[in-house]
Specification:
The complex is a heterodimer. Chain A is α/β, with parallel strands linked by helices. Helices cover 40% and strands 26% of the residues of chain A. In chain A, strands 1-2-3-4 form a four-stranded mixed sheet. In chain A, a hairpin with a 2-residue loop joins strand 1 and strand 2. Chain B has five domains: 134 residues, Up-down Bundle (Four Helix Bundle (Hemerythrin (Met), subunit A)), CATH 1.20.120; 125 residues, 2-Layer Sandwich (Alpha-Beta Plaits), CATH 3.30.70; 58 residues, Helix Hairpins (Orthogonal Bundle), CATH 1.10.287; 179 residues, Heat Shock Protein 90, CATH 3.30.565.10; 136 residues, OB fold (Dihydrolipoamide Acetyltransferase, E2P). In chain B, the strands form five sheets. Chain B has a six-stranded mixed sheet. The chains are: A alpha/beta, B alpha+beta.
């Protein structure tokens, strides 16, 4: 299981590069279905356990967050690793994840 | 989806090695005073391919060196600076540096960063000098570039670049970061990214690229320079570059037309000026046909082993079928005959997969000879003959070190200094010849030089000093063999080229390990030749099976001259236990296989048996066997691996009836006879 659900915090983990993005799809879909019946206004996405991420992984994360927002919820990233931050910065994708506010660190 | 990245790395390493080899080949052959434009383009392409690959696979250290090299090569190929011999030297050193970096990434070996930096500084220094020393070719001075182009090149412009990548960008393992970094290094660079909206997660494919990047770049570089950065990722309709004075919002570019005035149409960048397959590193699925595939050596070896088993099985079936009536079982015999033919064809095809042209080794020597000759202050021309001769891949790889030793020896000890050559009436420049030729089932590789030749007296004196058994009556051939003794060197001083006495014994050992032989021919004052004879392959051979007593032996077909039944008058007893056979004026020593291998029941009288004449190392030998059985294709199995070395043999094989037969080695037989 790549994704762990804990109240309003959602833990992401594993390989989010092109080698591993397909493995993330099922758990992300499952979580989206759970959200459909949940009454939450905001979820936090904890990225601390993401081992590696590249452009394909960031795209997946962005599309998934958009889908979360489409269900009426705010989604915000937490605990980004330095490596993940650097990748976002180098690809200039910061605005895709900030939701008008910088990522939180908890 | 699981992608084994190491597989892609290996392809990158292999292709880069090929590109580096091609660059080195061209640089060694190029005439700096009059370089061929096609060759300059080819080295530029090679450098660019390595850079592109390094960027794609995330080896930024290689990207830095190749970028510097490529920039300089670009100036050279556009005749903006004149090529000099010194530049070629630096280019070759840059190739070495990149090779070291590649090896470091591949094997984890250490990389000399100081050397890398020194090479980059040298390359940069040349680039810096280029402004002050433009090419003064008449053709260029008479055709100046249009003023507007010159102005464009000299002044800075701001470009708006919109990149809408193909959907397979991720699966092609393209990384955009190095591309953005390269653009950033070209001037004032800003980048914004966007991802196409996708609100249906159920049908979302995360391997499909939905990103769009828009950039602005203020630079003095040309649009062509910008395009080249995208060479490996951008297709005709995926990149748009236009002069701009203000940044614009991100918009997908597909289907759009570039505005008039300043718009520069995108195109298939890696096809620029190139139509050849593979030019600028085409991507999989492009129109160009792929002419080869890369397959692991272990897979090929497995195929060859299975082929060997098939050959044995076919021989067993053929043996069993001999007991069956040819009329009653006509169809079976016809089928088996067809099977034999097909097996032989298949075997040849399979064996050819492992065959490589010997140029794979020969091509490294122009550089080695050039560098060493410079170092030693000698003038040497290297001649390569028979580079297309094919040899088993395993042998090609093992032959590299022995040949390197021999060429270095020729350069250091063989070829004299220009002064010494002139003093002896020779031309100041010497010649080293590397030659390969296929002779029957063997490949003969020769390293020859027109230098001083071996010094018999000095070799004998040194051998005596090293307590080796020597005498003045030794033949030249025996004297030359002394240099194969471990630790033997007649060099008066040890240099970093040679003289430590390690080399020739290693050469002999390596060649023997390949089932080969080494011979030396030398004439004092005229030069030397070292001849290495190797089996074409170590897997399968064509042989004639012979019976001696109840045992069967295989004699390689390529060493057999003829077989005959001698008359009593043709036989001569010479001393004790020595018999010669008189054949057309020649007296050939007779070897009784029954005696050598202690086989009971072997025919003793030559008149009642068969004499088989074989040849090796220029000598003939008559083998006494009871009977000739037939021609076979046999799979060679190593005796050393399964038992121990048996004198006079090259291995063993399994016959159709399941019995083991020894395979005779003609050279070893001749040596055995000499030792007796």
């Amino acid at each position: 299981m790549k994704t762990e659900v804990s109240d309003t915090r959602h833990q992401l983990s594993g390989d989010w590069t092109i080698a591993g993005v397909m493995n993330q799809i099922d758990s992300l879909s499952h979580y989206l279905q759970e959200l459909a019946s949940a009454c939450k206004k905001r979820i936090h996405i904890d990225c601390e356990r993401i081992e590696a991420i590249d452009m394909s992984g960031l795209q997946l994360l962005h599309v998934w967050m958009e889908c979360v927002r489409m269900r009426g919820m705010e989604a915000q990233l937490l605990n980004l690793t330095d490596s993940m931050r650097q990748t976002i910065e180098r690809l200039r994708l910061g605005h895709c994840f900030t939701d008008n506010s910088p990522p939180d660190v908890v | 989806m699981n992608v084994d990245l190491s597989q892609f790395y290996q392809v990158f390493f292999d292709e880069s090695a090929e590109n580096l080899a091609e660059m080195e080949r061209i640089f060694l052959a190029i005439d700096p005073a009059n370089p061929d434009d096609e060759e300059l383009n080819a080295v530029f392409r090679a450098a660019h391919s390595i850079k592109g690959g390094a960027g794609t696979f995330g080896f930024p250290d290689i990207t830095v060196v190749t970028h510097t090299l490529e920039s300089l090569l670009d100036l050279v190929r556009h005749h903006e600076i004149a090529l000099t011999r010194e530049m070629v030297d630096v280019f070759l050193q840059a190739g070495d540096a990149i090779t070291m970096q590649l090896t470091g990434h591949r094997d984890g070996s250490s990389v000399d960063q100081q050397l890398i930096e020194r090479v980059c500084e040298q390359l940069s220094a040349i680039s810096g000098c280029s402004v002050a020393s433009p090419v003064t070719k008449q053709v260029q001075s008479t055709s100046p570039a249009p003023p507007e182009l010159n102005a464009e090149a000299a002044s800075e412009s701001t470009y708006r670049i919109v990149f809408t990548p193909p959907h397979d960008l991720y699966t092609r393992m393209v990384r955009m970061e190095p591309i953005f970094e390269e653009l950033s290094a070209m001037g004032d660079f800003t980048l914004t990214a966007g991802i196409e909206p996708h609100h249906e997660f159920a049908n979302y494919d995360p391997t499909r690229c939905l990103a769009i990047w828009e950039m602005t770049l203020t630079t003095d570089r040309t649009p062509d320079d910008i395009r080249e950065v995208f060479m490996f990722v951008a297709d005709e309709d995926e990149i748009r570059i236009e002069k701009s004075t203000a940044p614009a919002a991100i918009a997908p570019t597909q289907g759009e037309t570039a505005p008039d005035g300043g718009a520069i149409q995108g195109r298939r960048l890696y096809d620029k000026n190139e139509t050849a397959p593979g030019a600028y590193g085409r991507r999989p699925g492009e129109k160009a046909e792929t002419s080869s595939i890369r397959v692991g050596v272990t897979k090929v070896d497995q195929l060859i082993n299975q082929m060997g088993e098939l050959v044995i099985t076919q021989a067993m079936l053929a043996q069993a079928a001999k007991q069956l009536d040819p009329v009653q079982f006509e169809n079976l015999h016809r089928g088996l005959s067809l099977l034999e033919r097909t097996t032989r064809d298949l075997q040849e095809s399979v064996m050819s997969i492992r065959m490589l042209p010997i140029s794979f080794i020969f091509n490294r020597f122009p550089r080695l000879v050039r560098d060493l000759a410079d170092k030693l202050g000698k003038q040497v021309e290297l001649k390569l003959v028979g580079e297309s001769t094919e040899l088993d891949k395993g042998l090609v790889e093992k032959l590299a070190d022995p040949l390197t030793h021999l060429v270095r020896n020729s350069l250091d000890h063989g070829i004299e200094s220009p002064e010494a050559r002139i003093a002896t009436g020779k031309s100041p420049g010497g010649t080293i010849t590397l030659k390969a030729v296929q002779q029957g089932g063997r490949v003969v590789v020769e390293v020859g030089d027109d230098g001083a030749g071996l010094n018999r007296d000095r070799i004998l004196a040194k051998a005596a000093q090293n307590s080796l058994p020597v005498s003045d009556t030794m033949s030249d051939e025996e004297v030359w063999q002394l240099i194969f003794a471990p630790g033997f060197s007649t060099a008066e001083q040890v240099t970093d080229v040679s003289g430590r006495g390690v080399g020739m014994d290693v050469v002999l050992k390596n060649v023997h390990a390949m089932g080969g032989r080494v011979s030396i021919f030398s004439t004092h004052g005229l030069g030397s030749r070292v001849v290495i004879s190797l089996p074409l392959t170590m897997a399968i051979l064509d042989g004639l099976s012979v019976r001696v007593g109840n045992e069967t032996f295989i004699v390689p077909l390529n060493s057999i001259i003829e077989s005959l039944q001698p008359l009593s008058s043709d036989l001569n007893e010479v001393g004790r236990n020595n018999t010669t056979v008189h054949v057309r004026g020649e007296y050939i020593p007779l070897m009784r296989l029954g005696d050598i291998f202690s086989i009971p029941g072997a025919v003793q009288r030559p008149e009642e048996a068969v004499v088989m004449l074989i040849e090796a190392e220029g000598e003939q030998l008559a083998l006494l066997v009871d009977e000739l059985l037939g021609q076979h294709q046999v799979v060679i199995k190593s005796l050393e691996t399964n038992y121990r070395k048996v004198d006079g043999t090259a291995g063993a094989t399994i016959l159709g009836d399941g019995r083991v037969a020894l395979i005779l080695d003609a050279v070893d037989m001749v040596r055995l006879w000499r030792s007796r």
